[in-house]
Amino acid sequence: MDVTAREGETVDAGERLRAAVKQCAPGTALRLALDMVLAGHLGALICIGDTDAVLAAGDDGFRLDISFTANRLFELSKMDGAIVIDKGLTRILRANYHLNPDPSLPTSETGMRHRTAARMSLLTKATVISVSERRQVVTVYVDGKGHQLRSVPDIMSSVNQLLVSMQSTRGQLDRTLLRLTTLELDNYVTLSDIAETIYLFEVLMTASEELDSLILQLGSEGKTIAMQREEFIGSASYDYTLLIRDYAADSSEENAAAIRRALHETVNTQLRSSKRVGALLGYEGKGEDSIITPLGLRTLSNVSVVRKGMADKIVDEYGSLQHLLDDIEQNPSRLDRLGVENPGILADSLYRMWGKRA
């Protein structure tokens, strides 16, 4: 199998795991059933989807083909064997079903139920859920990988820590961006300034991703948290891309996206390295005190009279924010030709940002 195929399978498995966790989130009938199984101090092995392959890996049991409800799933968990449910969670097809996956399939699980669950998830495309009677935990398996479900109070403890971190980071980032704008207008931005700003963007984006995962696990309990997350993130992702385009040697959107991926994969200690950040931006050998001239996309996009897409046209025309500032008052008709309405307002806005005018 080639690398592309393996990467495709990994992405597919990741998406299927997210979908499986969402199916088991608080507020769903499946989660209600799982909570009832835990409360009843029972164990369970549940296979959802890819039913033909699942049934081919076992025998015996009871043929049911009845509608799915939380109560029925709970009652059927009192029997040994697996419960087989269709992909849409609408029909319970089998109960007390004896699964016999290939014992040579690799797994690090030790308990018999968990080993069977892990191997069934490798053998089939089913979502396999194992409820441990002894340890009182629920584990969801997709493609051989297990994800242990957490209680709402446990998840909320992590959520609150992330929200505090995001609030603090967002405040620090906003202050840093204001300072960066002033430095850009002074044409005195160093590589160190850029690295510091990128680091804060990465901290915020990473916390957002972690919070997004927790929101998924919270299900119906996570709506308010999702709103708080959006409030902290705002336009940060868009501003981050503009910042990278402003300072990258290649300012194309495609290259900016590639740089963002590379930055996101960079370890925390390297993110704080001006040399490493400079190399990713396309500046090999530049020191932290090196002056980097911005295009001005981010700053221009924060001016009200600059419509969406107009910042790119201005940058293409002038080449940099500094050249725009040098020319904006002497030759306003140049901006008129680009379709900028009220060039005077644009000039005043930039000078107010700069602090050169009241």
UniProtKB/TrEMBL annotation:
Gene3D superfamilies: DNA integrity scanning linker region, DNA integrity scanning protein, DisA, N-terminal domain. SUPFAM superfamilies: YojJ-like. PROSITE patterns: DAC. It catalyses: 2 ATP = 3',3'-c-di-AMP + 2 diphosphate. Residues 14-152 form the DAC domain. It holds the Pfam family DisA-linker. GO terms for molecular function: adenylate cyclase activity; ATP binding; diadenylate cyclase activity. Keywords: ATP-binding, Nucleotide-binding, Nucleotidyltransferase, Transferase. This is DAC domain-containing protein. It comes from Olsenella uli (strain ATCC 49627 / DSM 7084 / CCUG 31166 / CIP 109912 / JCM 12494 / LMG 11480 / NCIMB 702895 / VPI D76D-27C) (Lactobacillus uli).
